[in-house]
Amino acid sequence: MHINIKDILDRETGERAEFAIEGERPDLPDVELAEDLGGSATITKLDDVLLVEGELATQLKLECHRCLSSFTHPARIQLGGRFSFNPNAEAEGDEWPISKRFEIDLAPLVRQELLLALPIQLLCREACLGLCIDCGQPQEAEHEH
Ligand SMILES: [Zn+2]
Ligand SMILES: [Zn+2]
Question: Residue 144 CA: which ligand is closest?
Fold first, then answer.
């Protein structure tokens, strides 16, 4: 999810650029997407940082804690982050680095927000019966012994 921000850097402080995000399905540690990300974002040029704000939606692919089957969960996230040329930006928390090639990567920001958007209970449905203690198949699957 790299965006070239060279043009934006040349603008006046306070100017903003808007862009659509679609067809993006980044490989993120700890979060699997069942669907492409869609939404929009704006980049505002401030004095020495770029402010990125956006709103994205997708479907997460999760595994049920009880029956281990996979299920999808809709996620809607707000992006908000500052990007700067400080190479240690990421280590300092709220700020992210602009690469030497004038690119910013939204993937770490998206991952952070998606992790916060995970449901508290990872269940395919609230009443999931889990696995059969006899054979290990999901109870939901019709089977006999
Ligand atoms: Zn389940
Ligand atoms: Zn069984």
Answer: 2
Give the residue extent of every domain in the chain.
Answer: 2-116
Find the 134 Cα to ligand 1 centroid distance in Å.
Answer: 17
Distance 68 CA to ligand 2 centre (A): 15
CA atoms in the 13 A half-sphere facing the CB of 1: 24
What is the distance between the terminal CA atoms of the chain, rounded to a whole angstrom?
A: 50
Whether 128 contacts 64, CB under 8 Å: yes
pLDDT (average), residues 128-145: 84
pTM summary value: 0.84
Whether residue 92 is predicted with pLDDT greater than 70 in this model: the reply is no
* Residue 55 CA to ligand 1 centre (angstroms): 30
Residue 87, both tokens? 């190479």
